[in-house]
Amino acid sequence: MSNLSEGTIEIRREALGSPVAASLIRSLNAELSARYPEEGATHFRLDPEEVAGGRGAFLVAYVSGEPIGCGAIRRVDAETGEIKRMYVAPASRGRGIGRAIVRALEAEARGIGISRIVLETGTRQAEALALYPSLGFEQIPAFGEYVGSPLSVCMAKTLGP
Q: How many whole angstroms separate alpha carbon 93 and alpha carbon 123?
């Protein structure tokens, strides 16, 4: 847990199909669809089994009991995990919540033997483009479903012990 001036941030696992997760993901999808109205510009897929115990995790950040952010880590291969569905409610941005979620996802990744994390964000997400490099992520060539997507920015980070 981390402290914020308005309360304590608590990050905990949540089922991907829960009402809390569904609400945050709806907000994320709406924001991404507004920023990227082009056909095929958004990559929303994440399956519940990908964040099941031992394979990944879906985490929700709460402040004063209110869910205000989320993120997931899913295994890509034996050593690599991918961050998906990162979101912090606009009114709560700039308070270190996204940073806390990423750190918690890194801990989850280490716990299941992942030593490298990759992610995709978009060219129109200034917040993400500032956050990830500040946490040690470096830009890499597009991978997987993002190859050929001119609006995608892919990054990676090797995890220490």
A: 18
* CATH number of the domain bearing residue 17: 3.40.630.30
Closest CA to 60 of 68, 73, 70, 47: 70
Domain hosting residue 84, numbered range: 2-114
Residue labelled with tokens 């929700």: 60
145 domain-assigned: no
Q: pTM of the full predicted structure?
A: 0.92
Tell me whether residue 42 is in a domain: yes
CA dihedral 42, 48, 50, 52 (to 10 degrees): 150
Residue-wise pLDDT tens digits, 98-117: 999 999 999 999 999 999 99
Is residue 134 included in any domain, yes or no?
no
Give the CB-side neighbour count of residue 43, counting CA atoms within 13 A: 20
Of 135, 95, 77, 101, nearest to 24 by C-alpha is: 101
Residue 73 CA to residue 106 CA, distance in Å, equals: 8
pLDDT tens per residue, range 31-57: 998 989 887 767 677 899 999 988 999
Q: Note whether residue 72 is domain-resident.
A: yes
Per-residue pLDDT, 37 = 87
- How many structural domains are present in the chain? 1
- How many of the other CB atoms lie within 10 Å of CB of 72? 24
